[in-house]
Design goal:
Blueprint: H1 3-15, H2 18-30, H3 37-46
């Protein structure tokens, strides 16, 4: 882990004007072009984010017989 780099980035970000910080947040977190929805769902599924739902009795899934 590069702690010095992180600290330098924090200092640079804090030196930005409020307007520049808002733009940075938009570019980092609110840019809807990336990642796209299918990528996010794949990531959530592969990462096990919703694996707890498999054991939830209130969540109904499709059985092989129901899919037809």
């Amino acid at each position: 882990m590069n702690i010095q780099l992180v600290e330098a980035l924090v200092q640079v970000i804090r030196a930005l004007s409020e307007e520049e910080q808002v733009l940075l947040v938009e570019r980092l977190y609110l840019d809807t072009r990336h990642p796209i929805a299918p990528d996010m769902t794949d990531l959530a599924q592969l990462g096990g984010m919703f694996s707890f739902l498999y054991d939830d009795p209130d969540v109904q899934g499709l059985d092989a017989d129901d899919a037809q």
